[in-house]
Amino acid sequence: MARLLHIDSSSSKDSVSRSLAARYREVWDKEHGADSVTYRDLAAEPVPHLDPDAVVTLWAPPATEAQRATAALQERLVGELLAADALLISVPMYNWTIPSVLKAWLDQSLILGRTLPYDPSSKPLGGRPATVLVACGGFYGEGSPDAGMDHCRPYLRTVLGQVLGYEVEMITAWRTLAGAGAGSPEEAELAGASLREARELVGVRAAALRGAPAVGAV
């Protein structure tokens, strides 16, 4: 049975990014069952940011009780990544980048020799599908004068795709602030169209992974 690791990172329970992830899960759960999913809500149960003990355990065996507790958490996070045949991350753009809780999860999960390869040509997670569902309050797409302000999507493509080797599919809902009533009627119309398109693409993506082979191994 294929396994999915699902990460939500929005601080809002009613966020657009969470709603897109819920759409994905409708399709996935129908095919694979909800018990095939490992779920982390980083807003409800945040992973600690790196502290001095965590920095030590990224590179060396733990020597204190605090370091052993940190190492145990990192081992759980690494195990969840390695066991997942597919990855789903929902992420809002906060101040032009990813939420700090998502950065903390990445910092604690990316361990040299485990999820991060010593040899860049050998990637333990390489080839597995990663679906990233992004909600942006404005428009930062190609051709926009504000495109260079997007430090959310390029960063995730670099980490997940270039470094870890996931096959990344990124689906974005634009102008979500306008969709919530903070823009002109024209912008609200564009926001609605973007959200409808994103939901359709999410359904297509999830359906395409129905037959995803089980490749994860702890």
Structure explained in plain terms:
The chain is built from seven helices and five strands; from the N terminus they run βαβααβαβαβαα. The protein is α/β, with parallel strands linked by helices and 218 residues long. A five-stranded parallel β-sheet has the order 2-1-3-4-5, sandwiched between helices. It is globular and about 60 Å long.
Global outline: globular
| Series of H and E elements | EHEHHEHEHEHH
Radius of gyration: 18 Å
Number of domains: 1
Second-tier CATH architecture = 3-Layer(aba) Sandwich
**What is the class in the CATH system?**
Alpha Beta
Order of strands side by side in the largest beta sheet? 2-1-3-4-5
Low-confidence stretches: none
Strands, total number? 5
Beta-strand residue percentage? 5-15%
Work out the helicity level. Answer: 40-55%
* Continuous helix count: 7
How would you name the CATH homologous superfamily? Answer: Flavodoxin domain
Biggest sheet record: 5 strands, parallel
- What do the pLDDT scores average to? 92
Overall SS class: alpha/beta
Brief characterization of the structure:
The chain has helices at residues 16-32, 52-59, 65-83, 100-109, 153-163, 176-182, 185-208, and strands at 4-8, 37-41, 86-92, 129-135, 167-173.
